[in-house]
Amino acid sequence: MTYHSKWIRVDFVKGSRTFANLCWAFILVCGATGFLLVGLSSCIGKDLIPGLLSEQIVFIPQGIVMCFYGIAGLFVGFYLWCTAFWNVGSGYNMFDKRDGIFSTFRWGFPGRNRRICIRFALKDVEAVGPESREGLYSRRILYLKVRGRKNIPLTRIGEGLTLGDMEEKAAELARFLRVSIEGF
């Protein structure tokens, strides 16, 4: 989603609150709860899950391993729920021609550095360019090349942009900023 006027352009960035992350968090918590209940039922000797006979699973070593995987899965699942709830990584990129400032804002994890805001002068922006890695885990990121700094990513890593979408976004942004496109 983008807001665009003659002097200001704001590109909104989606965070970790995606349908896929919520599905994975739900699946992980359900599966981990099952593992933990199976491990605990083998420990106490009662069936905590109906239909599963606890005598079939010996507590040492199978029950302990099931409990360990259950606890580990719960931690990872709750971590995913928290990142989705806090919408970590969401924010915006703002280009203000009137003030000559580029600022990028992202939400982080709760704490002292929850709000991440970086500002640069637009005169230091040299180019807009893609970073594309193909293969099994392909990723395509649009970045801003700033003089004397590392490249600043403008899109999130898992956004799934096609090459055509990335070219279009880069061309629009380069036209607005009046800079070159690098790397296509």
TrEMBL record:
Role according to the record: Seems to be required for the assembly of the photosystem I complex.
Protein name per Swiss-Prot or TrEMBL: Photosystem I assembly protein Ycf4
Xref: HAMAP family: Ycf4
InterPro entries documented for this protein: PSI_Ycf4_assembly
Family: Belongs to the Ycf4 family.
Main location: plastid
Residue intervals passing through the bilayer: 21-40, 60-88
Keyword Cytoplasm set for record: no
GO terms for cellular component: chloroplast thylakoid membrane; photosystem I
Keyword terms, alphabetized: Chloroplast, Membrane, Photosynthesis, Plastid, Thylakoid, Transmembrane, Transmembrane helix
Topology versus the membrane: Multi-pass membrane protein
Biological-process GO terms, alphabetical: photosynthesis
Compartment(s) where it occurs, according to its Swiss-Prot or TrEMBL record: Plastid thylakoid membrane; Plastid, Chloroplast thylakoid membrane
